[in-house]
Structures are given as structure tokens and as C-alpha cells.
Amino acid sequence: MKQRGMWVSLLILSGLALGQVVVPFWHAMDGPAGKAIDAFAKAFNTGQHIYRVEPRYIGDYPTGEVQLVAALRTGTQPVLYQAELTFFPTLAADGSLESLDSEAAKLPKSLTSDLYSKPWAYGLIDGHRYGLPFNTSTPVLFYNVNAFAAKGLKVPGTWSAFARNARALTTRVSTGFIEVLEPWTFEAMVTSRGGRLVTPGGKPNFDSPEAVAALSMLQKLAQEKAAIPYTLARAQFAQFDFVRTKGMMVFASIANWPAAEKYSFAFKLGVAPVPTSTPSGTVPMGGAELVVLKGATAQQRAGAMAFWRFLMRPENIAKWVEASYYMPLRKSAAPLLKPFYAENPYRKIAFQQIERAIPRPRTPLFTLWRPYLDQALAQAVEGGMNPKKALAIAQQKALEVGR
Questions:
Q1: Which of 77, 147, 350, 352 has the smallest number of CB atoms closer than 10 Å to its CB?
Q2: DSSP state of 127
Q3: What contacts 382, CB < 8 A, 6 or more positions away?
Q4: Rounded to the nearest 10 degrees, what angle do helices 159-168 and 209-223 cross at?
Q5: Which CATH number is correct for 139-284+365-400, 3.30.450.40, 3.40.190.10, 1.20.1250.20, 3.30.9.10?
Q6: How are strands ordered across the β-sheet holding 177-181?
Q7: What local confidence, expressed as pLDDT, does residue 280 receive?
Q8: Tens digit of pLDDT for each residue in 290-311?
Q9: CB 324, CB 135: distance < 8 Å
């Protein structure tokens, strides 16, 4: 009888598994954040028997985007996908996303009114909801507290003070600043000066005075040997050199902190807001949206929304922030994070910038323009080209796209 009962239980479980709605989920989170996603999926799957979320790490954002484009061509795309913020509008414009209007309309006011407005609004395109907030960050300045103290330096609040610090921290064995030449941190240097890389009308604005000023600063610091330039492809080496004290300051996402912690710091790590040159200076939000791809059934859309609501439980948001250092998305999660932030107040710096955070460029063509901006940064900083000329070339190439 006992053996028969065991077989009956197995048959019931098998039936439940066969009847479940499967929600494949592709994401770009590794390390502690990736482990947290696996744990969330496991908890969600065991807590109910209607849906089964199957997470899969597919590499960093650029790697994942290539895989997704290929999957969309062959019809092998997942249901749920973590779309980087500048890739998200492109997917919507291509018709690759399912609208989540009907599912969002059923969300309780207790949830939507508790979400921070800027990340929640990001998922709307042309008045329709295509994205759900998941991992949201802002760029921050990581710095060597010990080196600052030895030189009697203060955290730079302006770009002129930042440049002075970079020079003051430069010695025969180390440089003051590690320059990672990539669009997001460069964008922060532009928006914090009151500029934009894309106009409100959706046109490229690469050669604006603010962009020229930002690139001129980067070029000058590199020429003075007060900065070490790294392309995005070598960003991991930049992080390693910061840990080894070859450079004393570097801009990155707050979410880079957990990955950096696997190294042994020989100094106290400091985190500061992005400097600004004007009261209207802003910082670009970073991170990604969760999206449902075309081809998903109504049941799969419902499963994706159910999983997102599970992720948005305050206790799960707190676990996510502690694992990933991304910003909390709900106000009710803030009290749960008080011990985490009290343990190290630097952890809260990115979150404190949310009031001056703005969306990344929402123009679908920005993903096609971005390589020209990458080229301009490298040509000016590593190749010595006049910053204004390098950005003018990038601007002209971007304008020609889509003509």
C-alpha cells in the first residue's frame, strides 16, 4: 500500500508538471544577482503549481541581445526577457514585444502607487506598457578613501573639482582616474552638465557643447597622464586596476559593487554621486526592463506578470537589493533595507540620486548610433583627435542612419 501511495503521488506531481505553463526567462545577471534570480524562480515555482519559470543566464547585455535577435528570427525566443534600457525601445519599435496593458490594468493600486514613479513610468512607450521595472541603477563614482585622505581631498561635487582630484591623485605608480570609454558613463558626464545625447525630438545630439566639454575633459586628463583610458571591451581590467590601486577613481554602476567585492580591497572603498556643473544636472538611469516577447500565449503573459508581482514583494525586493545593490523599486521595501544601508551608508548613494535620474535615450535608433559614439570617444582619447571634430563625425554618421 505504501508503494502504491508513492506511485500515486508521483503521478499527481507529474500531471501537475505537465499541466504547468512554462515561462522561459533569459537574463544577463551572473554572480550574486544571478543566484538570487535562480532562488526567486525556485521559490515562485514551489509556491504555486500553475506556472513554472525557467531562468537562463545568456551572458552580458550585448551578448544576450545578439542571442535574442537570432532567436526572434527562428521563433525560438523566450517568453520573458531582461531588456537593457536602450535596447527596450528598439524591441518595442520592431514589434517584438507583447503589450502588457491588460495585465497592468488589473494590478492593485496598493502596488502601483507604492512603486517609485520614474522606474515604473519607464515601461511605457507611446502610452502602452511594454516593460516592467526590475533592475534599476544610476552611475556612481567609486573612489579610494585612503588615497583621498592622504592627499587631504574632498569628494568632488563639480567637474572642475573632479579634474583637480584626478591630477592630485596621480603619482609615478598610479593615476587619479580610470576612464571607461562607454556611452552610459559618458552620458552621465553630459547630462550632469545639463545636456542630452539625444534631443527631445529624437535626433542625435552628440556634438552638443556639453558633450564636447565632457570629451575634452577626458582627453585632457589622459594626455596629462592623470587618467588611464579603457574601452568597454576592457572594462573588467579597469575594475581590476582600480582594486590594485593603479587608479584611484572610476565611474560605474552601483551594481558593479558585488562583483568587485570578490577581490580583496587593500583600501576603504568610497562611493559618491556623479559630479555636476549645473543645478539642472541629471544622471541617466541604468538597468533593464522585463519584457514579454511576441509569440507568448495569454497564459504565459499571465505567468510572466505573476512572477514579476512575486519579485515586487517588499521582502523579495530587499533580498534583490542586498544581492545586487540595485535600487529598491517600492517605497514599502525601504524600511526592510535600513540595516543593509546602515551597515555601509555608501550603498545608498545610487538610490539617493533617483530624484535627479532621467530615462536613457528612448529613440529606437540609438542602438545603431551608439557605435559611432564609441568610435568618437576612442578617437579623441586614445587617438588624439580634436573632441569637437570626433563628435561631429559621429553626429553626421548618426544622422545618416535611417535616411
A1: 352
A2: T
A3: 181, 222, 229, 231
A4: 10
A5: 3.40.190.10
A6: 227-231, 177-181, 249-253, 139-144, 269-272
A7: 85
A8: 999 999 999 999 999 999 999 9
A9: yes
Cell (9 digits) for 260: 568587485
**In the chain, ranges of CATH 3.40.190.10 domains:** 14-137+286-358, 139-284+365-400
Which tens digit of pLDDT belongs to each residue from 223-266?
999 999 998 778 778 888 898 999 999 999 999 888 777 777 88
How far is Cα 33 from Cα 326, in angstroms, rounded to an integer? Answer: 9
Output DSSP code: residue 256.
G
Fold designation for 14-137+286-358: D-Maltodextrin-Binding Protein; domain 2 (3.40.190)
- The residue written with cell numbers 559621429 in the block is 394
β-partners of residue 230 are 180
- DSSP per position, 40-51: HHHHHHHH-SSE
CA atoms of 367 and 74, how far apart (whole Å): 22
Report the phi/psi class of residue 70: left, alpha or beta, with left for phi > 0 and alpha for psi in -120 to 50.
alpha
| Identity of the residue numbered 312 | M
Length of the chain, in residues = 403
List the alpha helices (DSSP H) in 169-251.
183-191, 209-223, 235-243
What are the residue ranges of helices labelled H in 152-226?
159-168, 183-191, 209-223
Q: What is the pLDDT of residue 106?
A: 96
Q: Residue 86 is placed in which grid cell?
A: 536602450
> What is the spatial distance between Cα 349 and Cα 155, in angstroms, rounded to a whole number?
13
pTM: 0.90
CB 167 within 8 A of CB 217: no
Scan for cell 525560438, then name that residue. Answer: 76
pLDDT digits (tens, 9 = 90+) for 157-192: 999 999 999 999 999 999 999 999 999 999 999 999
Q: How far apart are CA 191 and CA 277, in angstroms?
A: 10
